Amino acid sequence: MAGEPALGRVDLVAMLAQLTDRPTDVPERIGSMELAWLVHLVEQRSDRRLDLTDDQLAGIRTVDDALVVFQTALATADG
User: Fold this and answer.
1) Mean pLDDT across the chain, nearest whole number?
2) CA–CA separation, 61 vs 77, rounded Å?
3) What is the pLDDT of residues 43-57, one digit of tens each?
4) Using H for helix, E for strand and C for coil, what is the string for the chain?
5) What is the Cα 61 distance to its own chain's centre?
6) What does the pLDDT read at residue 78?
7) Which own/partner pairs from 63-72 qualify as long-range (CB within 8 Å, at least 24 positions apart)?
8) 63-78 vs 32-46: helix axis angle to the nearest 10?
């Protein structure tokens, strides 16, 4: 979405903190529940559906993995 700030690691950590209700103790590893939560919030934030493949989803194990996949998906959607 035009004018929207780029998605960053700090954004994903903040989203996970909402789920865990522990803003200073967010785990680096992401489980299936955390991943579903992040996909949902990133879709809401960007006002679009992320078209992620099974391989992309399976490759997300950490916050940094999620950031790369989400940034790629959002850039592809913009292009």
Assistant:
1) 88
2) 23
3) 999 999 999 999 999
4) CCCCCCCCHHHHHHHHHHHHCCCCCCCCECCHHHHHHHHHHHHHHHCCCCCCCHHHHHCCCEHHHHHHHHHHHHHHHHC
5) 11
6) 67
7) 63/9, 63/12, 63/13, 63/16, 63/26, 63/28, 63/30, 64/9, 64/28, 65/30, 66/12, 66/30, 66/35, 66/38, 67/7, 67/8, 67/9, 67/12, 70/7, 70/12, 70/38, 70/42, 71/6, 71/7
8) 30
